[in-house]
Amino acid sequence: MSIVPMHKVAICGPLAEKDPVIDALQRLGVMHLIPLRAADPLAPTDAAERNRARTAFRHLVDSPEQRRPYRPGTAFNLADIVGRIAENRRTLRRLSDRRDELVARIGDVSLWGNVAFPALDALGGERLWFYVLPIRQRETLDNVSLPFAIVGKDSTRLFVVVVTAEEPAADLLPVPRTHFGAVPLHALTAELDQLEIDLDKAKAERGELTRWRLLLGTELASAEDADERHDVAGKTLDTDGLFAIQGWAPSESVPAIERMAESQNLAVLAEQPTAIDKPPTLLRPRDARLGGGADLTNFYTTPAYGAWDPSFIVFTSFAIFFAMIMADAGYAAVIGLIVLWLWKRMGKTDGGRRTRVMLAAITVACLVYGVLAGSYFGVAPRPSSFLARIAIVHITNFDEMMKLSVVIGAVHVGIALVATAWLARASAGALVPIGWLAVIIGGLLTWLSAGSFARGGTAFFVAGLVAVFVGSAAGRPISRPTDWLLRVTDGLMGLTSITKLFGDILSYLRLFALGLASASLAETFNGMAAGLQISRPGLGLLASLLILAFGHAINFVIGIMGGVVHGLRLNYIEFFGWGLSEEGYPFRAFAKREIPE
């Protein structure tokens, strides 16, 4: 992956040709425009109608049934179609709400059977109020002063009817009353049947209306493109019958802009960015399928144009960190099955294709690490088996796992320092990341080794601190004697980052801690299930299966959450903290919106 080189492009032409040129640039879709003056206010639009059309379009796109759309050129009355879609949306909502009410009412009434109420006069003005009371609370009926009768019961409940002209107090019984209503069960059931038919018709109408989604989406995109062109027209520099547009474009796109300018008799100037320019950043992977790394990078920050592209490192390290936190081949297989199930669906969009490659990489990393850790849903392979022989990662070995986690952290932060040093290679400031890299190497040699290697580690450590001191001090120019003292102060202040360096590297111990927690939880659930099955034959088997299912499901979800949160955190905080010193802004092409299919 790399940061795409940019050119600053300026286009100038007759003011009368400004609108066609803006339209041509939007169709070309390769320039990030730079405002040359404060924008004019947008022309007033009917926001209510635009929002109404957007809501209608979303109603069609979200429909479970998608029918073949009408192609461009089909006769299309926008107001009529939007009105029909809005009416269908209201109908579906009204019918769905009424169905939910009926289902709840039938659930309450069905406990009492198909009761038909007599006329109110036949009861002498009295009314019937229904309660479902748990048998264990039967003694509360002793405190009821109103006439009541127990008209039925089952193994756990009493069905009580209270007779009174006015609604009883809410605290008459420790349960709320059943809202029976005056409509009998058979009438409610008949209404529900008819309602389901009406819902089916409304859903079928929604499916038929989806044929208009392409045309409606085109209208919306065209309207929003027109708004954007108007906004751009208000940001150009207009003077003496001429207009000028300026922006950034990928270097490879400059010839296309020049051809467009030549075809419209425009003047165009393309030049390399200068030291004071700050072009936008466009991250482009060499293989588009690996664009998930760029997505992860841009999610948190956009590297400055003159920085380096960390996308591939983020892509790779995130998959490794996720695998170390999940730490189970069985869970990796579940992730793989989910990815396979969603593979075709994710392939419908560019973002989905990048995401599925990222998920596939995570699956492979989790599977490999889980096999090396010898964990399959928390179960270790038999000692004499092939899987046991290749299980070289011992998660419960604290000393081994701590060393592995710290070494991974040192390598990860070291990559960031190497990249920073390379970017600053022409200045004395490169001594700072080089010095910290030497400190890391020295610290590792001293910690992991003994004898001559430990002495060499001390030499690296001291040399690194000296390099950091010199690099931090060299950035201040000398114009008076006191600047030498300030240089010393700068050098000493630079050395204070040693606490941050070691804190960040030790932060990678979370890989070990979370992996151990995941493995321990899996083993715990397995032990609980096995113990219950042995202690309670028969019913214990069902209970143990439930423990296994729910326990591993909970552990799986926790593992995914931990893998995402902490896998990204180690990249965004620790890695970016040493590798990206300056933030940029993303490249936004002035282009027509895609027409949704």
Architecture overview:
- This protein is of the alpha+beta class.
- The chain contains 18 helices and 11 strands.
- The strands form 3 sheets. Strands 2, 3, 8, 9 and 10 form a 5-stranded antiparallel sheet that branches. The chain has a 4-stranded antiparallel sheet with strand order 5-6-4-7, with no helix packed on it.
- Helix 17 (509-535) packs antiparallel against helix 18 (539-579).
- The radius of gyration is 35 Å and the shape is flat.
- The mean pLDDT is 88.
Summarize the structure.
By secondary structure, the protein is an alpha+beta fold. The chain has helices spanning 18-28, 47-61, 78-109, 185-209, 213-233, 254-263, 292-300, 311-326, 329-346, 350-373, 386-389, 398-423, 431-448, 452-473, 482-495, 498-506, 509-535, 539-579, and strands spanning 2-3, 6-14, 32-34, 127-134, 148-153, 157-164, 177-178, 237-239, 242-250, 267-271, 283-284.
Topology, please?
Elements: E1 2-3, E2 6-14, H1 18-28, E3 32-34, H2 47-61, H3 78-109, E4 127-134, E5 148-153, E6 157-164, E7 177-178, H4 185-209, H5 213-233, E8 237-239, E9 242-250, H6 254-263, E10 267-271, E11 283-284, H7 292-300, H8 311-326, H9 329-346, H10 350-373, H11 386-389, H12 398-423, H13 431-448, H14 452-473, H15 482-495, H16 498-506, H17 509-535, H18 539-579
Antiparallel strand pairs: 1-11, 2-9, 2-10, 3-9, 4-6, 4-7, 5-6, 8-9
Helix pairs in contact: 1-5, 1-6, 2-3, 2-5, 3-4, 7-8, 8-10, 8-17, 8-18, 9-10, 12-13, 12-17, 12-18, 13-14, 14-15, 17-18
